[in-house]
Amino acid sequence: MHPFDWFLGLASTDMGIDLGTANTLVCIPGEGIVLFEPSVVATKPGTNQVLLNGNAVGQTAKAMLEKAPSSITVTRPMKNGVIADFDITEAMLKYFILKVHKRKWGVRPRVVIAIPSGITAVEKRAVVNSAERAGAREVFLISEPKAAAIGAGLPVGDPVASMVVDIGGGTTEVAVISLGDIFTHESLRVAGDALDTAIIQYIRRTYSLDIGYRTAENIKFEIGSAYPLAEEITAEVRGRDAVAGLPRSSTVTSEEIREAIRPTIDTILDAVKKTLENTSPELSSDLLTKGMLLVGGGAMLRGLDKLIAEETGLPVNIADEPITAVARGTGILLEDLDLYRDVLWDKELGT
Hints:
The protein is an alpha+beta fold. The protein folds into 4 domains: 3-39 and 82-147 and 326-346, 2-Layer Sandwich (Nucleotidyltransferase, domain 5), CATH 3.30.420.40; 40-75, no CATH class; 161-190 and 265-320, Nucleotidyltransferase, domain 5 (2-Layer Sandwich); 192-260, Actin, Chain A, domain 4. It has 13 helices and 18 strands. Strands 3-2-1-8-9-18 form a 6-stranded mixed sheet, with helices on both faces. β6 and β7 (82-83) form a beta hairpin. α7 (192-207) packs across α8. It is flat and about 60 Å long. The two termini are 25 Å apart. One of its GO terms (molecular function) is ATP binding.
């Protein structure tokens, strides 16, 4: 390494990144979450040229999603928790790294990136390569369940069971952790995006009304639930008539949305039950009192904790600030990389 590169590395702030399908979060040791942006980039069609002088990333780009003319391409470069567009992911990471550092040159941080536990070695290498090309001088990977458990303050290093259910945008991670490692886990490429798709399909099938993913996401947050509500609610849904092609609105109920997303919720429940089935008897006995912790954006779906508790018979808790747990975990890891090195996937190993 050139001595000047070494100096720039020392001058750069190390960062932990939750590189999510829906959102990217950055955590700085000692500072907490310093960036929370949608994983969206707007470019010139047929190129990797980011619009608005390289600033059409994150919230700015999401505002264009499903509204952009043919002269603008709006991309979500992460799909199901892995990189779907290498070049756009690199541009997005570079933008976020520079934004956090508030300068445009000489940024060479060490980076810990949280990724799904079920991805392949090739997919891990793609993440490492993107981060290195975006400016990281050293890259470490950690599975999302471990990062979430650390971020939520679970005793992951103790000889007791810590169970995490992390429902993000593209993946659901279910894991039982003991003595610093994952004892058993399930990784599904079914999560928040699948819930949005189910809502879109239900609205079209039931009301002959076409809506976009942003509208579906808003419906999910506004009236979505996994368990019957004490008082059911309604929402107005606006879109395009699937037959006439004209703008139209309809009113939908929380019961309907619950029906629409139940098959997807059942898939997540099956993963939780399968993980429990593969847990040893001694760790299972721990879970009778400790239960499991829900993290990720999906943890905020109304009544999901009640439904899982009812289906499994175990206590179910929602983490404080569940959507930031993974990112906070990467920040804690960076505070003492040597201590936590054994729980990380080193870039040289690729496994």
